[in-house]
Structures are given as structure tokens and as C-alpha cells.
Amino acid sequence: MYIFFSIMIIVCAVLLILIVLVQNSKGGGLASGFGQGNQVMGVKKTADFLEKATWTLAVGLVAFCLLASFSIPERKIQEPISAERPMQNTPTGPAAPAPQGE
To answer: 3-state secondary structure string, 20-52?
Structure first.
């Protein structure tokens, strides 16, 4: 699931970049090419579409980031060995002498 959300984040980010680059802060951009009258999708409608697409992609990007953060696979983390806690696989007392055979 994490991989799916990661791919959707990349797609959303690329589309958002393209939509923002098409816009012009002074009202131009893609909308400036449709300045003639009687257009099916005139200047105002194009600007509204680009603004709605920008907001939709921005909200989608945030949502996918949140969903991806909740779906990160869990890893088992090993605790560091400290001097205060003895190692579990070592004997705690002194070593017994080895028996000597005669």
C-alpha cells in the first residue's frame, strides 16, 4: 500500500507542477490564449478550472502524504546494548574451571 501512495504522490506532484506552470500570476498563461469572444471555455472558465485543479491536486497531495505516513511498513528495531543491562546470551557469574581428566 505504501508503494501505491508513493506513486500517487509523485503523479500528484508532477501534475501540480504542470498546472502551476501553465498559470500566470497576472491572469495570463493558458487563459490568455482564449481572449476571443464566444469560446466554449473562455478566459474566466479556464482560470476557474486551473484554480480548482490546483487546489484539488494540493489537497490530494497532502492527503496522499498523510496516508503514506500511516501505511509505512513497521520494522523491528534492535535495542542498543548498554553497559547497564547485561547481555542476555552471556553468563552473569564467573566462569567455572574446566574439569581436568587424569
So the answer is: HHHCCCCCCHHHHHHCCCCCCCCHHHHHHHHHH
The pTM is what? 0.56
Sign, CA dihedral 42-48-54-59, equals negative
Amino acid at 75: R
Q: Rounded distance, CA 51 to CA 30, Å?
A: 12
Give the domain range for residue 50: 1-22+45-72
Domain-located, residue 84 = no
Considering the domain boundaries, does residue 5 fall inside one? Answer: yes
Per-residue pLDDT tens digits for 51-68: 899 999 999 999 999 999
